Structure formats: C-alpha cells, structure tokens
Amino acid sequence: MSSAHSSSINNPASSATGSQSATSSPTFSPLYQQIKALITQSLQSGEWRPGELIPSEIELANRFKVSQGTVRKAIDELSAENLVVRRQGKGTFVATHHEARAQFRFLRLKPDVGEAQYPDNNIVEAKRLRAPADIARQLDIKTGDSVYFIKRVQSFGEAPTILEELWLPGVIFKGLSVERVLEYKGPMYALLETEFGIQMIRAVENIRAVLADTSASGLLAVELNTPLLSVNRVSFTYGDKAVEVRRSLYVTNHHHYQNELS
C-alpha cells in the first residue's frame, strides 16, 4: 500500500541552529519516534482503517526516506501499544476491537479455573442524559452536556458477574440510538469502532473494594453488603481524548482481576 502525500522528518543538525535562542536547550526526538508519530497520524486520520494491512516496512522506509530498521523499531513500539498487530507471513495490520485478543485487552476479570470467556450482555437501561459534574470532568466536557448512559449486567454462564454503567459523550457518538445498543450483541468497543470510527487506545482504572448496595445486590444476585470490586475506567482514543467513563462492579467469587506489569 502506498501513499501520494509526503511527511517531513526533523533534522537534529538543522534544528540546533536557526530559531533556537542562546538560552533555550533544543530537545530532540529519536528518529524512530518521529516515524512512530507519523504512522500514528495516519492511523488517526483513517488512512488505514482498523483491520487493514498497512504498507510494508520497505514501503514505509521509502515513504519517509529512512532505513527499514528505523521503521521496524517504530512498528515494534506501536505493536507493544496494541495499535497494530503483526501476523507472521502476512504483514502488519491495524488493530481492531473485533479481534478476539482485543476483546480481553480491557476486560481484566479472569476465571479462577478455565479459559477466559467473553460474557453475555443484558442491557438494563439505555438513554440520553445531561452529564453530571463528575462524569463531565472525566470526559473533559461541560456539566450538562449530552451523554449516552448505558447500564448493563454481564454474565458468565448463568451467573451475573459484572454490573456496569457506561457514559459516552453525545457529541462524539451522535446518532447512537437506544435501539442499536439494545439489539447489538457483541463487544461495545467493536460497535463504537465500526459505526463511529472510534478506537480505544488506552485506559486508566481506579480500583477499590466496596459493599453491594440494594440495587447492585439485586442485579448481581448476591447478598446485601457482599464485597465487590469497584473499577472506574476512563478510556482514551487518539490524541489522548477521553471518550468513555465506565463504572463496573465485579463479583469475585469465581473470578479475579489480573493485570500484567512490564
């Protein structure tokens, strides 16, 4: 895959002269980081869509006028950040939330025994609301701005295990209907990617222990005051823009929260 447009790379030697004043210290980005940023710009602009094959390392090296090794190092980092996926003998593809591996990237609740399974969804409530102050702050919007609110229970087998509230900014997901949410059976991130072109790139989670209140105990079929794991997540897309707040309650009788640190 090739492209007609060109992109410029900073030259450290030329950057050190010219507009830099005697009192300022120029900061330089390694060449592979500059290439990584340019590839990310193409991903963000939609030049290569989720699931599509991106140009080969040789093609990208020619496009950016750098070595193949520099491109490879840039793609290594993008792969480590789950923005692209390498497939042996096939090339490098834009990551998509429709892939099975991606569906478990953000779902950190694992069974104590057996393989991880994607839960069944039961939508309890879906509607448009005005953003409360705390949600607006996390989404970087104004209090009272339009948001989509989705409340659902996720079950493994017949056991309700996750109670979630999702808050999505209305201006970004304009056109998302309650009917579409109710009829869709797959992962929510896959729906948002397909219909709105929004990919979740990273997330920040805050975790604490809480006790089940009357509402949670009823929906999760547990006793009142049962210990639950509370997870507040803010998800971000390209440009580090917050596009979702998700508040979850996990039943951990047969599951645990697993995170890999590196």
TrEMBL record:
Residues 1-12 have a biased composition (Polar residues). PROSITE patterns: HTH_GNTR. SMART domains: HTH_GNTR, UTRA. Residues 13-26 have a biased composition (Low complexity). Pfam families: GntR (PF00392), UTRA (PF07702). InterPro entries: Bact_HTH_transcr_reg, Chorismate_lyase_/UTRA_dom_sf, Tscrpt_reg_HTH_GntR, UTRA, WH-like_DNA-bd_sf, WH_DNA-bd_sf. Signal peptide: none annotated. Keywords: DNA-binding, Transcription, Transcription regulation. Gene3D superfamilies: Chorismate lyase-like, Winged helix-like DNA-binding domain superfamily/Winged helix DNA-binding domain. Transmembrane segments: none annotated. Residues 1-26 are annotated as: Disordered. Residues 29-97 form the HTH gntR-type domain. This is GntR family transcriptional regulator. It comes from Herminiimonas aquatilis.
